[in-house]
Specification:
The structure is a single chain. The strands form three sheets. Strands 4-5-8-6-7 form a five-stranded antiparallel beta sheet. The chain has three domains: about 40 residues; about 110 residues, Uridine Diphospho-n-acetylenolpyruvylglucosamine Reductase, domain 3 (2-Layer Sandwich), CATH 3.30.465; about 100 residues, Enolase-like, domain 1. With about 280 residues, it is of the alpha+beta class. The structure holds flavin-adenine dinucleotide (FAD).
């Protein structure tokens, strides 16, 4: 933010969206990524901190709605959220960082180490996006199909994330060198188990790939099977075969493969033992 001339705090989402049309604008949420930007073209900062409607968490038996300006600390402290979501929020950075990092920022930043998108992928979250054209709801897998910068180009603002509570079991695991380090690999799963059979499965991975994504090969290997060691080992193998890990100076390729396999089994075991 080396050439910033204007700092604006819109009071409505409509005002924020119409300001975003200008090509020299940047949205400011928690600021942990934005403040590192050295883009000389950015002249105007649109600070979302006065938009109270983006700061609430609404929980019912059927669904959860998280405003884009909800912080990781809010997620940690809220009661009634899936444990996997709370675990992912707690895995992020340190307490001072969690106090400011937001749901919208986690989705829009698009760096390999983002923890929250992995958990949201495993719960089939839907991203709500406002623009001058209106409000659209995009399944998170579609939102992340390209880099979020591309998906949000043209003055789009994330306003919320919605999660339908369809999965009976969800889990999240992060593996890093220390508690405050970026993930080497993170994994999440969502299972809908009925009559002892997995009817629907989501398996998502982050950090070991450039951008968090679902692994359909692992998901398909789980559907129609009984939750248990045999199915989980098969899913782990399918996941490892489907992924080409990105180079990581901290670990070898062989280590990455072993890690993915063991984390997949562990996250599926942990999820299957926890009821939503
Ligand atoms: C030392 C350090 C360690 C960290 N460790 C981790 C970690 O372990 N795990 C992890 O997941 N994250 C971690 N982070 C945070 C991560 O790197 C991002 O900076 C963070 O996710 C961005 O969230 P924010 O709310 O601060 O967004 P900002 O920095 O305010 O914004 C980030 C980007 O998103 C855009 N944006 C923000 N909100 C919206 C919105 N509602 N609509 C459209 N665009 C929007 C901004 O314009 C900007 O491009 C760490 C950060 C630091 C500084």
């Amino acid at each position: 933010m080396i050439n910033v001339e204007k700092f604006i705090r819109p009071e409505t989402i409509g005002a924020a969206v119409s300001l975003l049309k200008a090509p020299d604008c940047i949205v400011l949420a928690g600021g942990t990524g934005v403040t590192l930007s050295r883009d000389p073209n950015v002249r105007t900062v649109i600070d979302l901190s006065d938009l109270q409607e983006l700061k609430s968490i609404d929980i019912t038996d059927e669904r959860i709605r998280l405003g884009a300006m909800v912080t990781m600390t809010q997620l940690r402290r809220a009661s009634g959220l899936p444990a996997a979501l709370v675990t992912a929020a707690r895995a992020i950075g340190s307490t001072p960082l969690r106090n400011v990092i937001t749901v919208g920022g986690e989705l829009a930043r698009g760096v390999y180490w983002n923890d929250l998108p992995v958990a949201l992928l495993a719960m089939d979250a839907v991203v709500e996006i406002a623009s001058e054209a209106g409000v659209e709801k995009l399944p998170i897998a579609a939102f992340l199909a390209e880099h979020p910068k591309k998906t949000l180009a043209g003055g789009k603002l994330i306003t919320a994330v919605e999660i339908e509570r369809r999965f009976t079991h969800v889990g999240y695991l992060k593996f890093a060198r220390t508690e405050v380090d970026y993930a080497i690999c993170n994994l999440a799963c969502g299972l809908r188990v009925e009559d002892g059979v997995i009817r629907e499965a989501r398996v998502a991975v982050g950090a070991i790939v450039p951008l968090a994504r679902r692994i359909p090969e692992a998901e398909q290997s789980l559907v129609g099977t009984a939750p248990g060691e045999e199915a989980f080992v098969r899913a782990a193998k399918a996941l490892v075969e489907a992924i080409e890990p990105r180079p990581d100076f901290r670990v070898s390729r062989e280590y990455q493969r072993q890690l993915m396999e063991s984390l997949t089994r562990r996250v599926l075991e942990a999820a299957s033992q926890s009821e939503q």
